[in-house]
Amino acid sequence: MTSPFHExxxxxxxxxxxxxxxxxxxxxxxxSSLDELTSAAVPAAIRSLExxxxxxxxxxxxxxxxxxALAGRNQVLRPMIGLGYHGTFTPPVILRxxxxxxSWYTAYTPYQPEISQGRLEALINFQTVVxxxxxxxxxxxxxxxxxxxxxxxxxxxxxxxxxxxxxFVIDADALPQTIAVIRTRCEPTGVETVVADLSEGxxxxxxxxGVFGVLLQYPGASGAVRxxxxxxxxxxxxxxxxxxxxxxxxxxxxASPGSLGADIAIGTTQRFGVPMGFGGPHxxxxxxxxxxxxxxxxxxxxxxxxxxxxxxxxxxxxxxxxHIRREKATSNICTAQVLLAVMASMYAVYxxxxxxxxxxxxxxxxxxxxxxxxxQGGVEILHDAFFDTVTARVPGRAAEVVDSAxxxxxxxxxxxxxxxxISCDETTTAADLxxxxxxxxxxxxxxxxxxxxxxxxxxxxxxxxxxxxxxTHPVFHGHRSETGMLRYLRRLxxxxxxxxxxxxxxxxxxxxxxxxxxxxxxxxxxFADVHPFAPEHQAAGYLxxxxxxxxxxxxxxxxxxxxxxxxxxSQGELAGLLAVRAYHRANGDTGRDxxxxxxxxxxxxAASAVMAGMRVVVVKTLVDGDVDVEDLTAKIEQHRDxxxxxxxxxxxxxxxxxxxxxxxxxxxxxxxxxxxxxxxxLNAMVGLAKPGRFGGDVSHLNLHKTFCIPHGGGxxxxxxxxxxxxxxxYLPNHPLQPSAGPETGVGPISAAPWGSAAILPISWSxxxxxxxxxxxxxxxxxxxxxxxxxxxxxxxxxxxYTGPAxxxxxxxxIDLRPLAKAAGVSVDDVAKRLIDYGFHAPTMSFxxxxxxxxxxxxxxxxxEIDRFCEAMIAIRGEIDKVGAGDWPVGDNPLANAPHTAxxxxxxxxxxxxxxxxxxxxxxxxxxxxxxxxxxxxDGAFGDRNLVCSCPPLEDYEG
Length: 958
Description:
With 958 residues, the chain is of the alpha/beta class. The protein contains 32 helices and 25 strands. The chain has a seven-stranded mixed beta sheet, with helices on both faces. A four-stranded antiparallel beta sheet has the order 11-12-15-14, covered by helices on one side. The longest helix is centred in the middle third of the chain and has 39 residues. It is globular.
């Protein structure tokens, strides 16, 4: 009899192959049990034999009940703290159909643009919103948060500016967390920062030192809105590049940074319908002058054409991706915040320019009325011009006022002993204002709101006001009804391929089940609506969940301490390397700056090392994919006195367990260096081996890979950093939440104290649902599935690398180069042909050009794995027909893939293969067919014609 839902082990739902399927797969691979297979695959020297010290697995119902209890320990007060985080109202049509919709949250980064046209269009919309509101022509497709976007602006200014040397000047009215993140990022690379009051311009004593860049906050953290044109003009006179951190909602009312002369605009799109979530995830943004477009960090969506000349979207300038540029990278950014950028773009689409302006005006008038009521009660207001934030002076009473407001259900910001900041947003009510007045001891009333608003007069006027139009494209005018918005979202989702359609076998990216139970809590108000700088006692449930997750990740990896602050894997890398750097400096080893990196490593490794102030020395990789120990030994000896760290990915980037990893770690330690084990491939080790036990000193983990946070079309991610105890004093900390890290830490890596806290319940739930034994079996099945695919495909495609006993780890690389040479078929052809078979392609040409890296994960069942194998085998047959001359090299199903419905419906068919072979290959069921919306996209055209614009008008006619 089947167990009831609440008793059935979640492990059986997460792991795709059941016991019978596992037996069949084991027989194919040649082993009798999972334990026998993993004993053969995982070197004995690193194997962890003791059971994981984790709580036992719980059912889905039990875990949801635990989460409800944790959520109940959080207090949701009205958030009037400000500092870049605001209450917002997520339209339910966007909440349910984007944030809670697996068609959007289980998609991967749009590297295969033909099957990503929906999310690429949404990102074009995002770029248009940012570009229009900031008044700068080119916007990226999102960054990680406002603080790190500001740090990227510093690097961009240094790279493109005319002044070589000099200092970077930060507005004293910038957000405090932004100032701190910039300092963390600048110190290792020797960039000097100066924080100065820029309200009257750049001080003469600063200007005479040379200034290569300036950051201005608009409006300021204090709420002040001032005309930035004079200080921007002064900065340009000094040769400086000017970045403005701007509030997009405010920009619907006040003059754009571009109109004021700014070169760069950065900020966050959080208040465009994305919950605060105790700090994230939120999509940061950057827009730039046209001449800086090709230096923009992160991703940029551009317009190209497909094989029929139809307009199509793709990621432009992909050579900027850090996997390619390595130590020459301009940034270590690898992921973005796509899901959150989509939400923000749809908020703008749904409201349109008039709706956004109405929200901004309401927010502003509430702030004006608030200030008027305080002034009438004798409270001094520090600024005459403001948008949503009022700064009040109450000598000696600030703490008393903040405490009193808290009792009334409102969180305010205590700036210092004499000053209180109050921020309004679209969720602010008249009752909130009344509570604030009462806290200040002012006897205004909510019923007086209209009179106070009238008495406040024009707070913003003259040169401060915006006069130009924005969001004029029809997409921002055509979806006002919920029906229209719902259908628009559905049309875009239907163009895309995500895990809700089928397998995404991407090597190194671990696209596995993002269970609904794990996702459910992130939209609960007790998690979604907590301000990151709320008093810690209001976030007791969050902090318990965070500390439990940190402890469990430490147990799983063999490390002693974990920080969850980094909000991407690349940020985790940087945090780990900064910890290593700080450790050496604390020991007096200031000359240790060499970072050894195998040539096969993830490209972000080298980029992160450069950002941490280190010199990259590349170590050779052998033909079998292993680190060249002879070359490593020589490099260690050559740089012995300057060796800081070895960065090594394990299992290797080539998908194998290297048997000598413990010896490699020991050799580095003997030379005084540290070992960084890149955690990208941790899905092959959980429950089987612990990097902190076999020689690692530090690792970053990818919660959006191994621990089930969904990729969201290219983000959000979480990249915790895990360290041994000697590095723990140097983990990230935060100036606004002291408990977020050690006092001796390196500073904040991200803007929020605990990074993307809102999505941590996903990984906490996964670990809780699976328990130690379940997590171990998930790893074992991931290894089994990869080896099963390798065995099935080996007769048709060479498997490039294997480890002990001829086995791979959790992924395998198949070599298409001999076939390309013999038949003239490229790896691109195979990737695009897989679309016709109903699959997202595996990872192309990484780490070896001309190959496919396949990772099935533990969540795909045997039926889907076999369907993929059969598709690959059928494609090999098609390649052979090209090689035999049955089909011409330039006109065959691979060269012309993918095939659209329009191709099938074409009146004339002049190809040497049939329409059936084109669109229903290998017996594909027509009823289950995924139809790509465009044919193959011309990448070179897109890079030559870099366009950042919305879909054309004709797309919306009628």
